[in-house]
Amino acid sequence: MDENTRQTFMGPVRKVDDLLYETTYYSYDYEAAERYFSANPPASGSCSAVSKGSLLGRNYDWAIGDKVDFVVHTPARDGLHATLGVSSSLIPSSIVDSGEDTELYSYVPFMTMDGVNDAGFACCVNGITVSDRGKTASSNPGAERMSMAMVVRYLLDHAGSVHEAVELLSKKDVHSLPRGHMDGFEMHFMLMDSIGSAVVEFIGGRTCVTYGVRIMSNFHLSGVYKRADLKPHSHGLERYRVLSDGYADIHDRDSMFAALKTAWYSRTYDRSTVPFWYSEFYNDYTRKGEGDFTVDMVAEDWMEARIDRAIARFAGKGVVDMWHTGHCSVYDIEKKTLDLIANETDRRHSFELEDSFH
Predict the structure, then answer these.
(1) Roughly what angle, to the nearest 10 degrees, separates helices 237-246 and 253-261?
(2) The total number of structural domains that make up the chain
(3) Dist CA 339 CA 261 (whole Å)
(4) Backbone angles phi, psi at 31, to 5 degrees
């Protein structure tokens, strides 16, 4: 793809901060994206999400590295909503900074992890452990196929409400990531409008909707009413509790950021975090010939030793395969704005849906 071709579907790219850029997309190809993501499944992050009043806040937790975030604007066109969102984890910063062309630019809108549209509908995606349930091969056999990676983009473009979003998903055959280095994970979704919020999960070939959910991390919420309902490898329990404890103090964007910061992912590697986030180590990656670690277990010596090794590797935040919060977003669905902090810094950036650049 050359620069002239890229200019036919997207605007210029503006650097906002380290590993953070902004651009506008005028068109993109759903069929091409379905083919691409079916052949090249992206991995799923951990992440946390909170909805309260007109605010949707989320931490996008991902591996430390050189993949960039794009704040993506799309105008209303051909029956699609205008949108504002954040796309992540697709293009290395060296390519963006050099001006080099790559076909990956064609798929940036489909890696939107969170966003809001001109109808005041917002949504985001979190990773979810599926070690105990299995992945979603098909949610609606015979319907039009759609990779789980594309759901946020599809809903922002087409849905004006939570109810409409659920109806739209019920008519698609949503499928999970068939392979990849995070084989024990797929995705679930928080949806929000002026009436309330809901979480959508795909379980046993069915689309499951749980209404009234205000906090989401990385374990199934459908059918979970108490700890005994959790699956053995449920992930993100401590982050869920931390956000629950601070929920009453959320009343504006500043206090939403304050709550989200208590769940920034680098705290996983901090032994002073109380209670310690053991559930971040419940997934299949604990199976290294030392045994398995699950919800019902008290940490044993082998697990404590493995956690200590991980913390030692994390020192200095310079190890690519360790994780942090890649972006922390707060959307206001009434004002249709986004405030964002990238890479656990103290720098906050603001964006509006109506404007392409600031």
Answers:
(1) 150
(2) 1
(3) 14
(4) -65, -40
Residue 291 backbone phi and psi in degrees, to 5: 120, 180
Q: Evaluate the omega torsion of the peptide bond into residue 141 and state whether it is cis, within 30 degrees of 0.
A: no
| In a domain? residue 93 | yes
Cα distance between residue 351 and residue 82, in whole Å: 14
Claim: this prediction has a pTM higher than 0.85: yes
| Residue pointed to by tokens 């999400």 | 49
pLDDT in tens, 314-345: 665 555 557 899 999 999 999 999 999 999 99
Q: Give, in degrees to the nearest 5, the angle at Cα 163 between 160 and 167.
A: 95
Domain that holds residue 238: 3-263+328-347
Lowest mean pLDDT among 14-23, 254-263, 265-274, 310-319: 310-319
**Structural element, H or E, at residue 241:** helix 237-246
The stretch 137-150 carries a mean pLDDT of 94
